[in-house]
Design goal:
alpha/beta, 30% helix, 28% strand
Length: 225
């Protein structure tokens, strides 16, 4: 299976044209034209769900919320954070200069036919705005040079459109005020058996403006996950 890569032409100047092109290329229905599911959140792995529940939050990705992923392995943890939503049929836009490892996503259980990878070039906010309106989840790596007002606007657009933003970075953009932030404080690989298999341990700190008291938990990926 392969990802779809919509071509974002440099000459486009109207955001609605960009939205139309991305949606058409990705063969998705925009949230504004779709009937949203009754559930206010999309599923996550039970280990993340348990940590969220312990913090007094819904055990899933809440529509309209912004999540930050930072620290030692932000891309790996972001992929793990979104995998259950992808398995459940969610459409995901990955907006970053470098595409994720598609083979690794496939092995983890992602629905790659519902993943669109986009290199935003110098049009970060245009791409982000378009994707929030056309996909259930936007995974975005925000460059540090973006104006603070644009980063704050990203969160407000997500809240209005019922889209979910997962912002990744190390560090996160200073202006991003995530509802929930997962910071991977320590990440380590360990061999299993004769050394042919490995597990990936990620020690995570859960915080954010919706979290009253930060919490720590550990997830192990690989043969024992």
């Amino acid at each position: 299976m392969s990802t779809h890569r919509p071509a974002v032409s440099e000459h486009l100047t109207e955001q609605e044209h960009l939205t139309e092109q991305l949606v058409k290329s990705g063969r998705v229905t925009t949230l504004s034209r779709a009937v949203l599911k009754r559930d206010r959140f999309l599923p996550v792995d039970q280990r993340i769900g348990g940590a969220l529940r312990a913090a007094g939050l819904p055990a899933g990705l809440v529509r309209g919320a912004t999540y930050g992923v930072s620290g030692a392995s932000p891309v790996s943890f972001a992929a793990f954070l979104v995998v259950e939503a992808s398995r459940a049929g969610g459409w995901v836009a990955w907006c970053a200069p470098a595409a994720p490892n598609v083979r690794a996503l496939h092995d983890a259980g992602w629905g790659l036919d519902r993943l669109v990878c986009i290199d935003p070039a110098n049009r970060w906010i245009d791409c982000a705005d378009a994707c929030i309106g056309g996909f259930e989840i936007l995974v975005v790596a925000l460059p540090t040079h973006l104006p603070a007002r644009d980063v704050r606007r990203l969160s407000s657009v997500a809240a209005r459109s019922n889209g979910i933003v997962v912002a990744i970075g190390n560090p996160l953009h200073r202006a991003l005020s995530a509802d929930v932030e997962f910071r991977v404080e320590h990440s380590e690989w360990s061999a299993v058996g004769a050394g042919h298999l490995q597990t990936h341990d990620m020690h995570v700190n859960l915080a954010g403006r919706r979290v009253i008291e930060s919490r720590r938990f550990t997830v192990t990926l690989g043969s024992s996950s």
